[in-house]
Each structure stands twice: as structure tokens, then as C-alpha cells.
């Protein structure tokens, strides 16, 4: 049997153990989680966003965690449920989150994102109609680059499924391999995705044409985040460029150059994509 003194010591320690456990949970709960759209592999994304994470931790004086998801659909679902305090996503998805989930736009990443048609240097095409009867590689079929690019091709008289086929690929380097191996004549990708292709592959590819430029990513606050905290995060992001040691690493890696306030001026024009965006997120 335990002696009376031992029992008393256990009872005295018990509240301390509970308090310590509560402190750990509170500390974990205080972590600001930023969800980033998985347009690239998680390895590349976490590396790219590391300078921003370090900066926000220092400025906001709280732990910051950068997270992503296995694919666009699961990321969209998690963001819609408010699982991320801050969501960084494509502009058309950001508008949908704003209207349907109550997310609050914070900043727009600038400049816009280039939509590129990329081909094999050794097997170039001479005109856009050369895509007729061929297969086009897509790295992110739900992206705004893909939506705009498919529409641009239709305007040129090339309709998906009728005049050409598409092949989806999930990783950064496989889209280049599909073109270089002859499985696809060209790939429709963003400037950032092209930059993320390993050097050895990218040097064997060439940009046939920039066919569009779409709005950059948008950072949004979860509807559950207090307005004062959302305002602090917005201010911190807008001031990010004033810390060149960290911001230059981020902007060099991502291809973006800065942030501006995401206001109705930036958000309302995205309504033209709402119908198609609702379709692709329901698939």
C-alpha cells in the first residue's frame, strides 16, 4: 500500500500535471496554421514558404506552421471547413471560399500567373493547329491556368475531347517527362510549375507560347479567425517585402514579386469563373 505521504504527493502533483498538459494543448492551439494550395510537391512548397513562415513567426510572435494536402480537392475541402487559419489558394477558388464559406481576402500575390504551352525542344510545333489530334499534358486540371488555357484553345478552334485529348499528371517532373517521352506533344502549365521542373528536364523543353496571364494566388483568413488577428496578418504580409533577406528568398523561389490588398476591385472580376469553378470542385 502507498504510504500517506506518497498519496499526498500524488494529489499535490496531479493539478500540476493537468496544468502542464493544458499548457501544451494551449501552446499547440496557438499555432497559426497556413494552408498552401498543392500546385507543387509538398517538398517544394514547404521549402518555398519557409522564409515567409520564419518572418511571420517573428512578427506575429507566435508559432506558424505551413501545411498542404495530397491534392487540390482535399485541400479545397479542408479550407472550406476552416481547417486552416490562413488559406493561400488560386484566385478562382479564393472567390468561391469568400462567397460560400465566409473567408476574408487578405492579400493578392503579384504579378499574375503566366499560362504556358511547353514543348520538346527537339520536336517543336510551328503553329497552334499542330495540336489537333494530339495529347496535351495538364499538371493541375483544376487550376485557373488550365481553365483559361482550355478556353483559349477553344477560341482557336481546338476543343478538348473533340480536337485533342488531355492527360493529367500529379508531379512536378512527370509533366516534362510526358512531353519528352512523346506521350504528349505539349504541356499546359503555369510559369511557376515550369520553373519547378528539374533543371535537367527543363533545359530540354521550350516555351512555345504564353497564352494567358491569370490573377495570382490569394491569401484568405478563415471566418473563425478574429478580425483583429486577420488585420495583423494582412499588415505583416503587406510589410513582408521590407525584410529583403527573407522576402527575396521567397519571391525568387516562387516567381511572385509582392502582395497588394485583396479588395473588391480584385475579387469581383473573378465571378466570371464561378460557374466553371463550382463544376470542377463538385467532381
Describe this protein with a few key phrases.
single chain; 283 residues; alpha/beta; D-Maltodextrin-Binding Protein, domain 2; 2 domains; six-stranded mixed β-sheet; five-stranded mixed β-sheet; 12 helices
Please tell me about this protein's structure:
It is a single chain. The protein has two domains: 25-112 and 215-281, D-Maltodextrin-Binding Protein, domain 2 (3-Layer(aba) Sandwich), CATH 3.40.190; 113-214, 3-Layer(aba) Sandwich (D-Maltodextrin-Binding Protein, domain 2), CATH 3.40.190.10. It is an alpha/beta fold and 283 residues long. The strands form two sheets. A six-stranded mixed β-sheet has the order 2-1-3-10-4-11. Strands 7-6-8-5-9 form a five-stranded mixed β-sheet, sandwiched between helices. It has helices spanning 4-29, 42-60, 72-80, 91-101, 144-155, 174-180, 191-196, 199-202, 227-238, 244-254, 264-267, 274-281, and strands at 32-36, 64-67, 86-89, 104-110, 113-120, 135-138, 165-168, 186-190, 205-214, 218-221, 258-261. α5 (144-155) links the parallel β6 and β7.
Amino acid at each position: 500500500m502507498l504510504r500517506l505521504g506518497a498519496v499526498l504527493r500524488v494529489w499535490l502533483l496531479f493539478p500540476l500535471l493537468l496544468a502542464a498538459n493544458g499548457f501544451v494543448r494551449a501552446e499547440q492551439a496557438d499555432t497559426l496554421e497556413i494552408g498552401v494550395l498543392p500546385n507543387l510537391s509538398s517538398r517544394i512548397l514547404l521549402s518555398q514558404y519557409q522564409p515567409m513562415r520564419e518572418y511571420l513567426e517573428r512578427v506575429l510572435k507566435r508559432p506558424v506552421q505551413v501545411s498542404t494536402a495530397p491534392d487540390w480537392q482535399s485541400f479545397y475541402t479542408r479550407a472550406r471547413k476552416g481547417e486552416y487559419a490562413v488559406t493561400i489558394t488560386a484566385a478562382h477558388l479564393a472567390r468561391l471560399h469568400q462567397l460560400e464559406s465566409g473567408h476574408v481576402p487578405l492579400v493578392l500575390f503579384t504579378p499574375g500567373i503566366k499560362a504556358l504551352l511547353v514543348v520538346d525542344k527537339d520536336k517543336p510545333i510551328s503553329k497552334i493547329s499542330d495540336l489537333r489530334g494530339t495529347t496535351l499534358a495538364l499538371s493541375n486540371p483544376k487550376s485557373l491556368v488550365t481553365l483559361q488555357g482550355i478556353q483559349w484553345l477553344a477560341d482557336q478552334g481546338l476543343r478538348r475531347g473533340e480536337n485533342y485529348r488531355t492527360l493529367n499528371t500529379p508531379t512536378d517532373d512527370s509533366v516534362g517527362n510526358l512531353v519528352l517521352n512523346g506521350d504528349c506533344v505539349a504541356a499546359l502549365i503555369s510559369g511557376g510549375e515550369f520553373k519547378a521542373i528539374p533543371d535537367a528536364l527543363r533545359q530540354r523543353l521550350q516555351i512555345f507560347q504564353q497564352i494567358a496571364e491569370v490573377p495570382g494566388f490569394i491569401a484568405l483568413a478563415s471566418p473563425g479567425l478574429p478580425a483583429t488577428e486577420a488585420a495583423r496578418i494582412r499588415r505583416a504580409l503587406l510589410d513582408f517585402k521590407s525584410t529583403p533577406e527573407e522576402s527575396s528568398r521567397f519571391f525568387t523561389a516562387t516567381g511572385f514579386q509582392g502582395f497588394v490588398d485583396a479588395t473588391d476591385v480584385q475579387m469581383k472580376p473573378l465571378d466570371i469563373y464561378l460557374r466553371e469553378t463550382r463544376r470542377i470542385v463538385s467532381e
